[in-house]
Amino acid sequence: MVGFRAGDVPPTATVKFIGAGTAACIADLFTFPLDTAKVRLQIQGETKGPANTGHGPVKYRGVFGTISTMVRVEGPRSLYSGLVAGLQRQMSFASVRIGLYDSVKQFYTKGSDHVGIGSRLMAGCTTGAMAVALAQPTDVVKVRFQAQISAGASKRYHGTMDAYRTIAKEEGFRGLWKGTGPNITRNAIVNCTELVTYDLIKDALLKSSLMTDDLPCHFTSAFGAGFCTTVIASPVDVVKTRYMNSAPGQYSGALNCAVAMLTKEGPKAFYKGFMPSFLRLGSWNVVMFVTYEQLKRAMMAARHNWVTPL
């Protein structure tokens, strides 16, 4: 019998679904402090918000300045504030947007071997929108926790379930889906740029025989996808974060939030937190995609050994 290699058989939809969620959670564990620093920098300049009421403004300067200030003022645990909601988000969010991407792409190509850029973009938009519709409450809670100053006794949320209850009680169940519009826009952009760029870079490297389908190829493709995604998605990401973290009635909508930012802080406000965003998204992409590719192979090998008699 010819020896089995995991790469010889395409992974099933279930393998992709579970693998994507698991890989995304592992990536979040490594990069969560950078995401928290990004959120703090993005909301800096706002005069009020539900997660920081009762505290004077804290000035953050740069990625590592933000992290060191948080550790000094609030303690090291503040860097992982909102991690539980973050992992809940990734398990539901990444499983759909990444795990179903290839299946939806095949649906749009109707089984054709040729996969055009249009099919890739449509698949990215579709799975991104589906993921937001499912995971939006976890994203709202994650952002609220990350924006909340942990020092002092006047914390608004005292646990993940308490945050869900408090938001639903004070803002209604619609509060848990606050910012769905800008989040769908952001994730359509992120998904299209991230997955399509990763797909295209990886295909180009393999077709040109510059690399084989292994770790260096996955690393290069993921890093390139992270940079392109950060450049394109940053403005929408900042608006999404500001709007999700805003007090009820502070903005009439996401567009009003964007206009207020432009008027009060200028165009540069849309790229607040760019460096931590890039460091986070670049490193997250590398950890996630490399882990995802290895998990797919390991799970397919385990599946083969399970179904093949000795």
Automatic annotation (TrEMBL):
It holds the Pfam family Mito_carr. Keywords: Membrane, Mitochondrion, Mitochondrion inner membrane, Repeat, Transmembrane, Transmembrane helix, Transport. One of its GO terms (biological process) is transmembrane transport. It is found in: Mitochondrion inner membrane. Solcar repeats lie at residues 11-107, 115-204, 213-298. Signal peptide: none annotated. InterPro entries: MCP, MCP_dom_sf, MCP_transmembrane, Mito_Metabolite_Transporter. It catalyses: oxaloacetate(out) + phosphate(in) + H(+)(in) = oxaloacetate(in) + phosphate(out) + H(+)(out); L-aspartate(out) + phosphate(in) + H(+)(in) = L-aspartate(in) + phosphate(out) + H(+)(out); sulfate(out) + phosphate(in) + H(+)(in) = sulfate(in) + phosphate(out) + H(+)(out); L-aspartate(out) = L-aspartate(in). It is a multi-pass membrane protein. It comes from the Eukaryota. GO terms for cellular component: mitochondrial inner membrane. Its main location: mitochondrion. The keyword Hydrolase does not apply. Belongs to the mitochondrial carrier (TC 2.A.29) family. Homotetramer. Adopts an asymmetrical dimer of dimers functional form. PANTHER family: MITOCHONDRIAL DICARBOXYLATE CARRIER-RELATED. Antiporter that exports dicarboxylate intermediates of the Krebs cycle in exchange for phosphate plus a proton across the inner membrane of mitochondria, a process driven by mitochondrial motive force with an overall impact on glycolysis, glutaminolysis and glutathione-dependent redox balance. Continuous export of oxaloacetate and related four-carbon dicarboxylates from mitochondrial matrix into the cytosol negatively regulates the oxidation of acetyl-CoA substrates via the Krebs cycle, lowering the ATP/ADP ratio and reactive oxygen species (ROS) production. This is Dicarboxylate carrier UCP2.
